[in-house]
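User: Fold this, then the next.

Assistant: Folding the first:
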Amino acid sequence: MNSEKTKTTLVLLLKWIFICVLIGIFSGSASAFFLVALEWVTQFREHNSWMIWLLPIGGLFIGLLYHYYGATVVKGNNLLLEEYENPQKVIPLKMAPLVLIGTLITHIFGGSAGREGTAVQMGGAIADQFTRIFQLDNSDRKTLIILGISAGFASVFGTPLAGALFALEVVFFSKISLRSSILSFLTAYIAYFTVEFWQVKHTHYSIPIVPELTFLNLLWIMGISILFGLAALLFSRSTKFWGALFSKTIQYAPLRPFIGGIILALAVYFIGTTKYIGLGVPSIVDSFLTANAPYDFILKILFTGFTLGAGFKGGEVTPLFFVGATLGSALSVIVPLPIAFLAGLGFVAVFSGATHTPIACTVMGMELFGIESGIFIGIACLVAYFSSGSVGIYNAQIVKGAKYHLYQKLNRKKLELF
């Protein structure tokens, strides 16, 4: 009897390891292709600035593509979270090519968007296909979705620990099994090493000088982290505001990115710079070396919120990195701490506030910048998390726990006052 049970357990273990390997390889390869293609379209756009005038045509194409072929997957990351919380049906595989094409079109013509959403959606769609292949139930589907998110995030940013934790933390207040946790880490590393195998490089950042752990420095960090949290709140509200405005004023969905593209192209023309479109990685790198203008982060919030709200495709995380890094860099003029240190804190803290994932963001900061600044990164992510409000970039994300209870108490006190 025991030998039969052991055999069954071993078969189950091997099955899940096999699934992790497949998801990691397929998702990692998809991310590797995406990163190479994204770099190519970005360079092409930078060397052909006239491409910005074709943004309305690109937007119309994306709008028509999703209107006629992608209605079931238009929710993007929110669809993954909804299917995790309340499994209904397998996520269509077409989510992967549609978001890939949509994101590349957005970037080649000059929309302001990121890449995490694309990689996560590709990973989630690929992972969920194994539901049919292995005849898995809804409980196992939840594990697959976590693995897909983990693989996509880890592979696109080159941060396997943070990728695994992000996948777990973004659904943190739903039931998570120990199996899901272990498999999430395994899949993240397989996806990460797959990208390494394809010799696709990630951007490297560094904090060369870490200040001493003093009471005064901690006060400074807590103060600016509140600002990082407010920037995250503004980013989340901006995307939702523009999305609601476009939906309300333009009934025919394909016209939203078309009209949005016209406005974006004109805005870039009159501003006279392409700094706030695309990923903005060069600006992020520069923010670790040179103090940014105090309005850079606001303009990136405006451009990204408008781009995504209009219906263009891409992620929010790299723009969040831009917002945090440039805000931290700008604060270096008045805050007596190293510029790279402040940019690095903002880089992960704004992300933490907008996604309600302080643990994953803390680990990500240590993976990117080194463990020496870990205590400061953890404080910044936690403070930004609590000061960013209850609304994040993912509508379908369930926000509970300490932050949820804090805001519930604050709301009750407001009602008592009135």
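Now the next one, as you asked:
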Amino acid sequence: MKRGRPTKNDEEKIKQRILEYYEKDISATVAAKELGVNPKTIYKHYKNWDAQKLGIDEKDFLSRIKNTKERSIQSLEEDIISLSKEIDRIEFLMEKSLQNGNILEYEKLAKLKLKTMNQRTKTISAKINLVGAPTADILINNEGMLA
């Protein structure tokens, strides 16, 4: 990003991009690095949104938590699909390497396929853990039942 004070329009675009990171619970430090924005700007917006969260009623808060969880699950599903397509492409290239008798390329692709499959497995595991994790409303209801 360019230096100096952004225009109002640019400022709103930056704020929206920062909000995407905030809603995914990505730390301000990582968001600043990824967006190329001054960390103080990120912290300012994160602090404001945290204050808003504390000021909203419980139902709205629980709804936002559920929405954030759903968006995270969708993101993981998109990653799983992308990794699966990448594995298919690697397998195609592996077959071509065998047909051409290029064993070195085949071995490199086989290693890449294993790494990609490992990443897909980790992503599937993360999705399963997130799907199985109870949201705040369920925890609150269960706590009320125990009391």
